[in-house]
Amino acid sequence: MASGGIGAATHLAGELFKVVTSVDIVHVPYRGLAAALTDLLGGQVQVTFASVPSSIAYIKAGRLRALAVTSAKRSEALPDLPTVGEFVPGYETSLWLGLGAPKGTPAEIIDTLNQETNAALSDPKIKARLADDLGGTVLPGTPADFGKLITDETEKWSKVIRSAGTKPQ
Predict the structure, then answer these.
(1) Is 155 exposed, middle or buried (0-12, 13-18, 19+ CB in 10 A)?
(2) Burial letters for 129-139: b for 16+ Cβ neighbours within 10 Å, e otherwise?
(3) Using an 8 Å Cβ cutoff, are 114 and 142 in contact?
(4) Residue 89: HSE in the Cβ half-sphere, 13 Å Cα cutoff
(5) Over the stretch 98-116, which tens digit does the pLDDT of each residue have?
């Protein structure tokens, strides 16, 4: 299992798969996902848990055989591709991005940033660009929703990291 390096999202996605399935997969860390994808395309490794944005061009060009997406829902960019969770109950991992502000930022500024961000994310052109070009899904919400996501994800991944015995490099 190639990854973009020890502790990278691609590594931890594979470790979560190992935890949920009890399958023993040998981890092969690379210095970045580009090198891992190069060796995957060249047949030096058999599998990776690459993000959709990093692999979608290879998938659409027919150079990479995608087996499933790791998100809870099927990708709008690859709708015929099943989720891992469809055949491995309990498996889900998604890369997500969000906005943050320094502690103590006035609530009215946070509210304005949140409203404007959600408005931008509802724009059909932005949604289409994120979905078509990057395989992304828009996740609008409140600052409290984002805080809960961070808390939940921290708990989930700390268990996977402990189970894998992953140490900082």
Answers:
(1) exposed
(2) ebbeeebbbee
(3) yes
(4) 0
(5) 999 999 999 999 999 999 9
Q: Which residue's structure tokens are 């268990």?
A: 159
The one-letter amino acid at 88: V
Which residues, in sequence order, are CB contacts of 29 under 8 Å at separation 6+? Answer: 3, 4, 5, 6, 8, 11
CA distance 79 to 69: 10
pLDDT at 76: 82
**Mean pLDDT score, 138-157:** 94
Q: Which helix (H) or strand (E) holds 2?
A: strand 2-3
Q: What would the pLDDT profile of 37-85 be if each residue is shown by its tens digit?
A: 999 999 999 999 998 888 999 999 999 999 999 999 998 888 999 999 9
Question: What per-residue confidence (pLDDT) applies to 158?
Answer: 93
Long-range contacts of 19-24 (CB under 8 A, 24+ apart): 19/159, 19/160, 19/163, 19/164, 20/88, 20/90, 20/91, 21/88, 21/91
Judge contact between 165 and 5, C-beta under 8 A.
no
